[in-house]
Amino acid sequence: MTIQEIENQIIEEFENFEDWMDKYNYVIELGRECPKIDEKNKIDNNLIVGCQSRVWLSAEFIDGVIIYKADSDAVITKGIASLLIRVLSNQKPQDIIDAKLDFINYIGLKDHLSPTRSNGLLSMIKQMKLYALVFQTKTMNDK
Amino acid sequence: MLDINKIRLDFPILKQKVYGKPLVYFDNGATTQKPQCVIDAIVKYYTEENSNIHRGVHFLSQTATVAHENARESVREFINAAHAHEIIFTRGTTESINLVASSFGKKFIQKGDEVLISAMEHHSNIVPWQLICEEKEAVLKVIPFHKNGELDIAAFENLISERTKIIAVTHVSNALGTINPVKEIIKTAHAKDIPVLIDGAQGIAHTSVDVQDLDCDFYCFSAHKLYAPMGIGVLYGKEKWLNAMPPYQGGGEMIQTVTFEKTTYNELPFKFEAGTPSVGDVLGLAAALEYIISIGMDNIAAYENDLLEYASSELLKIEGIQIIGTAKHKAAVLSFLIDNIHPYDAGTIIDRFGVAVRTGHHCAQPVMDILGIPGTIRASFAFYNTKEEIDVLISAVKKVKEMFA
Predict the structure, then answer these.
(1) CATH code linked to domain B4-30+297-404
(2) Which residue among B19, B345, B347 sits closest to A75, beta carbon to beta carbon?
(3) The whole model's pTM is what?
(4) Domain range holding A126?
(5) pLDDT tens-digit map of B359-390
(6) What ipTM goes with this model?
(7) CB pairs under 8 A, 24+ apart, for B65-68?
(8) Is A51 an active-site residue?
């Protein structure tokens, strides 16, 4: 599936929730199921420091696509991180660079990505795109 | 007895609903809400009185100057300083501490000297001292605190040395709620001729402050944590120190005469007030002080203490609650954790109940590191809060437990 298709799928899923509590229960569930970063990668080098919560992010470039894994000390942060991973993982670097990630606005979790929330998520998106840029440059150099 | 229902009507913002629920504002440690009289004072200033003060001969300028200096007198009276010129208007506690660290430090701290702070300080009472210590190659020493959040007084006495040039401690911990025995600390320090700066950012709103009785050399606070506007604060300093310290910033107001060869400085308090002051905010502060006095600081402290006790005991009825900071003397600042739930997670859910609490390290990272926790959930109360509002917080906490179980 393309990034846009996955985004649409998530928007549809969230439309089913009647109130905020259902929505957050789902995010919490996602947080618990989040593809956890390997313990060996949970190192300071992969740490994105937010003021409120911490996020670890790792990226591998396999067969032309990037595989992201993440973890956070806060479950809600981890749940949103897992949505970002679902959208961006297994995608080509150029597509990741171009992704607008509008779905966040539609599912009503935008507040968690505001610069003042400082929960590490905004920095996580930046970091994911940076990885994409690095792998993209690497691919071009290899050609 | 305070008539809380009547008091609440004085604060227009409290009528608000968030997420369709009545706003429960428990983030008073970060900033307090403003009563209508403070808002009116600012509006009146810009509607009728706005003019640049001092040195103006015209009518408006003189009116504004008089109002500004009357406000200084109100602050003097509020903290019982000996002289109005010992009251310096700053942008807030942070600027007040920076002023002293920089200006006192420039003159009195030399290589190898020591500055003593405590481990429960807000970053604003750590970093300015680190900067001057770095510049002067001086040493920053730290008074530890016990697990319950009380300062280790024995360690404090041992840490004082012949090289200690100044001691800077907080009156009330913003993260733990501890009311420190500042009077005793000052007495011990003065026995060795060491001046003491008190960070009163939290203390000023919860206890009566008498700087002459405390005998502190400096007392710093922000107006916005005292029901007054943001962007204005106070540095109280004893005349003898303020006179001995060099100016902090240069500019208008703070000069006597300026030539390119030599500038002479104005007398106190103007020596430390370079540039056009925030007159409207100063008048807002004066209005807030008048309002607080009309309610009575002792009434406020007693009522807030009731709220703190009620909230603490209700919270502790819930299994898995850990209160962070259990000092014997506490102000209405209540830090806690729910099971192993991350404060960010808890805060996100509590917010949906319309309850404003603060989560995180509260700009006191060393406190969290020492206690080995990522942060806390902090409810900080003001005299417009009620037990019914605490009940809303309690049900929100129960919901958090349920959702993250």
Answers:
(1) 3.90.1150.10
(2) B345
(3) 0.93
(4) 3-142
(5) 988 899 999 999 999 899 999 999 999 999 99
(6) 0.87
(7) B67/B279, B67/B283, B67/B286, B68/B277, B68/B279, B68/B282, B68/B283
(8) yes
